Predict the structure.
Amino acid sequence: MFVILSFLWAAGIVIHQTHFCRIDALPYVVLNAAAVLTLLRPGSIPRFAFLLAAQLICFAWQLPIVVNHWMMLAFAALTVLAALLGGRPRSTDEWYARIAPFVRAQIVVVYFFATFHKINVSYFDPSLSCAADHLLKLAAKVAVVPTGDWAKYVSMYGVLLIEGGLPILLLIRRTRYATIVGGTIFHLALGVNGYHDFSAVALVFYAVFLPSDFPARLVAFAKRHPRIGAACRRVAGFSRAPIVSVAAVAVVIGLAVLSPALGWSHRDKYVMLHVPFHAIWFVVTIAAIGVLIACRRPVASATATPAPQRLSTPVRMAGTFIVFVVFLNGASPYLGLKTEHSFAMFSNLQTEGDEWNHLIVPPAIQVFDLQDDLVEIVESSDAHLTDLGQRRLKKVWLEFRRYLLYRPDTSVTYRRGGVEYRVQRCGDDPKLSEPLPLLVRKLFWFRSVSPADENHCKH
């Protein structure tokens, strides 16, 4: 199981990196090289450990501008490393058995909040709902997808049922395998709609729910289809050759060097990386669904993955603490903390100021008032701020400060707390030029705030 998990982990990172065309900066080069090396030798503990370290360093460097699935994968990486607190595992299977319960709990928490956040006024409005918006986007790519009002309602409630049902069905042993297949098909549809990076990472989390005899099922599948088995063995043998690893790293470094040297634009990198890897992801995911269906029956002679005799206290405490932090991350909007990467992706949720729209949780639950300190843009020399003002979008004060700290020459007129301020140069203003504390700068990230009647879909 460890080999399957590490392979999917590395593949998910490759798809994520190519989705955003991240090949230039040094942290990206190291991470890309680590991912490729792990793909070539997924059973190698040193390579996988190197991948986790590179991933977490890259994640910390990028904070707070990270997407939800990248946050999820970082929590999982911390869990994998925390499992080593119990001492060196006797085998990779035991290492896997230590982390699986905690990673399962994390994905249940994520699906819970992904569903719970959607129970709001805007989500159930077909003119605003992200589900309806995604339906229209999918229809533009797949002609047979219906776009009538009835289809929008089906999409809104259908997504709620799928995302709400997946974690429950994953926890039930009898329905778990069918749910993995169904969830993979669900994420295939999301990937076709442009979110294949998220879908690729989702397969990492489904892997921890696979039955312990799944590797034996794969072996049995290869025996039933000798041509496929022979092809897989040839590919595996080829990938183990040291020269292949050297060549793969050389390609990663070469792309990083050529990109700035040849002045590649984002569009150039998009065509060279995003488009072909999106196609590769689609083909591989279709094949994975076929293999999952073909391997649905248990293998009688399979040896189950050995579970550790007893998780040590440090492992239990660390794993439980990480699950708690994942829950706290999802609850952040309701507590008055950050609103981005809180698993509220495409939920239409708003908890800022007077725009609170959740149908169950009341505003009184908020402990902190960071989201209530809103700024309205009147005019500015900055095009982005001007656009926000014209669209009646407000910014949380901390996010407004963050934006202007990197643009000291900007002039802006804004309203805050009912008072209008006119600043000729933001770098000369004591409030707008004051640096944000490190933890605040790294941990808090806020969405722009829409008027309730214009709360259209945004990430």
User: Anything to note?
Assistant: The beta strands are 374-380, 394-396, 412-416, 419-423. The two ends are 33 Å apart (CA to CA). The chain has a mean pLDDT of 91.
